[in-house]
Specification:
7 helices, single chain, about 180 residues, mainly alpha
Length: about 180
């Protein structure tokens, strides 16, 4: 009987230690300040529905992650990006929000909808954050691959922009002659 109690105590202590360790290794976000260039979203929390305080922000962020994921499934990239950026702003320590936000940005880039170099840079930064700070190995691999792929997209956009500038210069020089 004493042996059973000892093994149960050891098991529960091991379970608590392993559980606590996993909980502390997931926080990945950089320090985010309100209303600066570093903030993900400038939208205010919905305090009329969720209330005020940290718990209400975490609840709203969870709902926004769920809604953003549904928007991604429906290929509604702009709505997904808006919701997920607010979710990341409200709960910056939750890695799943960062993953979903990076995926939404990347899918919009892949769809070719109003792709700008700034959007590609935002997606790259988010993937690099996950690559270097996420504890989930599979998400790190995904982040590494997406970051490298987006760097090639950024180079291609840069090349296209240079080609447009050259064409504009040629066209303007032909008009003057």
């Amino acid at each position: 009987m004493a042996r059973l109690r000892l093994s149960a105590a050891l098991f529960s202590a091991l379970f608590v230690l392993v559980g606590a360790q996993a909980a502390y290794c997931d926080a990945i976000s950089p320090s985010i300040k309100e209303a600066t260039d570093d903030s993900y979203s400038k939208e205010k929390p919905d305090s009329t529905f969720y209330g005020t305080g940290t718990g209400s922000h975490l609840t709203e962020a969870s709902v926004l992650r769920f809604q953003g994921e549904q928007d991604m499934d429906n290929h509604e990239w702009d709505a997904a990006i808006r919701k997920l950026s607010k979710a990341v702003q409200l709960d910056a320590a939750e890695p799943e929000g960062h993953v979903l936000y990076a995926r939404a940005l990347t899918r919009k880039i892949e769809a070719g909808q109003n792709v700008t170099p700034e959007m590609v840079q935002m997606a790259q930064q988010e993937w690099k954050l996950l690559w270097h700070h996420d504890s989930d190995y599979l998400e790190q691999i995904e982040a590494k691959n997406e970051s490298r792929r987006l760097s090639r997209v950024a180079k291609m956009l840069e090349k296209q922009d240079r080609m447009k500038q050259v064409k504009a210069q040629v066209a303007s020089s032909e008009k003057t002659h």
